[in-house]
Design a protein that fits this description.
The protein is of the alpha+beta class. Helices cover 20% and strands 30% of the residues. It is built from six helices and 17 strands. Strands 7, 8, 9, 10, 13, 14, 15, 16 and 17 form a nine-stranded mixed sheet that branches. A four-stranded antiparallel sheet has the order 3-2-5-6, with no helix packed on it. The longest helix is centred in the first third of the chain and has 9 residues. The chain starts with a strand and ends in an 8-residue tail after the last helix. The C terminus is likely disordered. The structure holds uracil (URA). Uracil binds next to helix 5. Uracil (URA) binds next to helix 5.
Length: 240
Amino acid sequence: MQARLDRFLSKHLSLQRKAIKPLLASGRVQVDGVVVSDADRIVTQFNHIVVDDAVLQQHVARYLMLNKPAGVVSATKDAKHKTVIDLIEEDQTADLHIAGRLDFNSTGLLLLTNDGRWSRQLSLPENNIRKRYRVTLEKPLTEDYVQAFSAGMYFEFENITTRPVELTILTEHSAEVVLCEGRYHQIKRMFGRFNNEVLTLHRTAIGDLSLDNALSLGESRPLRGGEVRLLANQGINNVF
Ligand code: URA
């Protein structure tokens, strides 16, 4: 939400717009603890807005990282399974949504927020936010995979060719994969071309933000201010 302060006040106080100017001039309106008299001031859903002693809005932006365990759905509601929201403390969950899902059996870094503008930035293809994964595989890897992942693969169902994917072989059965898009089951489908089943898939980083090693599976913590800005400022510089 973004609105001019006079529109916001007029709506929330059910007053005509002409009554708002004197109200603002009287010094009775505060935005984030500061008296504001400017009717054109733009406010968002995260500003704390008070008139006299009445709090009209007190939404705070929340950003969390979760170390997602396997067997939990990346959704806010599910009829059958436990969801990632069930793992977050109840007083933190209002209006949260997921910024970049992980499959049911995938683990690792999952971001949750109530700030739609921030999460949209993370998902915009032109922002090229890189997601880093550790995978283990049923069959041995060869250099052919590196070449095929880098060249891109055509997915008939969506009629797209995947963007270049960085694959680094770590051991015979494990690799690091870096993607800058997130097609449906993308990593599993790419290894599927080699008939090689992904046994485990763990996300270790989104952009420059790494999963906090202090978080065990199922644990979460709020992002620090610097971490929120780190991702908000990423984008066009991140092209492969
Ligand atoms: N690719 C997959 O196949 N699964 C995930 O959870 C993430 C990327």
